[in-house]
Amino acid sequence: MSKIKMSLRLHGELPPTEQINSILEFFPTKSLRKGQRVGKNRIQPTDVWILDLAKFECRGNKNEINAMEQQIQQAATTLQQLAPRLGFLNRSCCKVELYISTIREEDQGGFSLPGKILKAATAADLSSVEVSILVMLDDYEEPES
């Protein structure tokens, strides 16, 4: 089984959230401001604006694979729509990243990115593509709550 989440992340010294929303014509899934308390002992160190693009689990059956491909296509379409708008952000103080987080139980942690996502990321002139991979070993047991 695999779990994958893709999001567009803006971070750094960002303009006000409302201004970003207006420029991009999208609302964030999550937005945090520098200095904001985000936990009992943690203060947000930088401004962050996050738009979730895709989130899915796949065990390899045909329906799940089709749903995954549809979500990836939609993520690529969203990135393509955002590409010209992202150019209005001051990139000297704002980093724009495609963030991919995955939890894998197979393929020794490997995964592939479809060309559509790579093409859309290139068109959006992203600062980087960040990847987080957690490989679940066969003998891993979920902690009890």
Written account of the structure:
- This protein is α+β, with helices and mostly antiparallel strands and 145 residues long.
- The protein is 29% helix and 31% strand.
- It is built from three helices and five strands.
- A five-stranded mixed beta sheet has the order 2-3-1-4-5.
- Strand 4, helix 3 and strand 5 form a beta-alpha-beta unit.
- It is globular, with a radius of gyration of 17 Å.
- The model has no long low-confidence stretch (mean pLDDT 87).
Helix-strand layout with pairing:
Layout: E1 2-12, H1 17-24, E2 30-32, E3 47-58, H2 62-86, E4 94-104, H3 115-123, E5 128-135
Helix pairs in contact: 2-3
> How many helical elements?
3
Strand arrangement across the biggest beta sheet: 2-3-1-4-5
Enumerate the spans where pLDDT stays under 50 for 5 or more consecutive residues. none
Strand content: 25-35%
> What is the quaternary state of this protein?
single chain
**Could you say which overall geometry the principal axes of the C-alpha atoms support?**
globular
Number of strands: 5
Residue share in helix: 25-40%
Please write the string of helix (H) and strand (E) elements: EHEEHEHE
